[in-house]
Specification:
By secondary structure, the protein is α/β, with parallel strands linked by helices. 33% of the residues lie in helices and 24% in strands. The protein contains 14 helices and 19 strands. Bound molecules: ligand PMT.
Length: 407
Amino acid sequence: MVLLRKKIGVVVTGGIAAYKATELVRQLVKAGAIVRVIMTKSASEFITPLTLQVLSRHEVLIDTFSENDTEHVQHIEFADWCDLVVVAPATANIIGKLSNGIADEIASTTLLAVACPCLLCPAMNTNMYQHPATQRNLKRLKKDGYYLLEPDTGFLAEGYEGKGRLPVITQIVEKLESIAAKHFYPQLLENKKVIVTAGGTRERIDPVRYISNDSSGKMGYAMAKIASFLGAEVSFISTKDHFPMMDNMDLILVESALQMQKEINERYAQTDYVIMAAAVSDFRMMDQAEHKIKKKDQENEKILWELIENPDILAELGQNKKQQVLVGFAAETQNLIEYAQRKLKSKRIDWIIANDVSQKDIGFNSKNNQVTLLNEKGQVVNLPKMEKIDLARKVWEIILNDPIIKD
Ligand code: PMT
């Protein structure tokens, strides 16, 4: 979404991970970016320029002196064209050249002319990566304003384990998204602290069983991701831990409603926005069994477990509200607006987002959602069905009353 129509220059240098540039280009094109590629001569030993030309749908530059266009100098034109540049894989050689201002072939010459944000993704043998010269160069490049994505540790092409692998491509794309957001999105939440809760809480019955619901955490994660794109410091208090964390986003993993409440309360006084997208269980076991509950021998025998109500976290936040803007979600299967309105009032919050969870293609665990926002001033905004990440962006625009983010 952030990369839509962004002009991205992909610079591929000569390491074994060069073949992974195909997937990077593919994913960037899929994200709606316009992609052009530069390859060093050594990179073209690992993968052909034609492959990247086909995937990027643009001519690949590999030679500084193949100047076919008399109007432009190609490496300058390329550098000026880019909104964002990513060097993946970035070898020790290109890192060394860049940190010393050397420009002696197409990649280094172009990179020296680049004035837009640039992400370096080092990938090489672990000893080359740990070498003091490489580390010194990387430190200097960071100081010069380059973005760096550390290599992964794992099985290397050399046949042994070490740090030096190119991170998975989705991670590179996510890093580019957060860099793009930082530079191209208005930083409406800069210096603001935001709590977002996500996922269904788990209320233990015994050590191996629990009461929960179908909330996947996707809606909350989308709200948290956009908040971080807008510059907020985000505490993502979630029952799910498989989401990649963006810049300025901390994962606080919780299980039960009581744990969630504790983590929120510890941060509440310093917080500006609380987005309660979590599906908090209304009940928990009165007494959680210490050991696995044994089944009774008799079929159809009634089993009675006593439940107790959990605290209503959001309602308590509403009672202690000062500067905070409080946003709740109302998951309903009937009388959507009426019930949502009641929750808005009874919990004394600023916004409620009415979410019909009776439909399979929206709400719980789906990619899409469709909601109605209601606020305490009587404003009502209907949002059509769309992907949760796009919806989260619209929701933030409405809450912040700032339509600066243009499509
Ligand atoms: O996670 P996904 O799969 O992406 O699905 C998203 C979602 C459907 C879970 C989400 O969009 C949503 O609707 N979340 C709220 C679910 C819910 O618990 O709704 P509720 O109507 O029971 O509660 C109203 C509000 O009070 C919610 O903001 C809830 O977080 C909060 N609450 C509820 C109970 C409780 N004990 N404490 C609370 O703070």
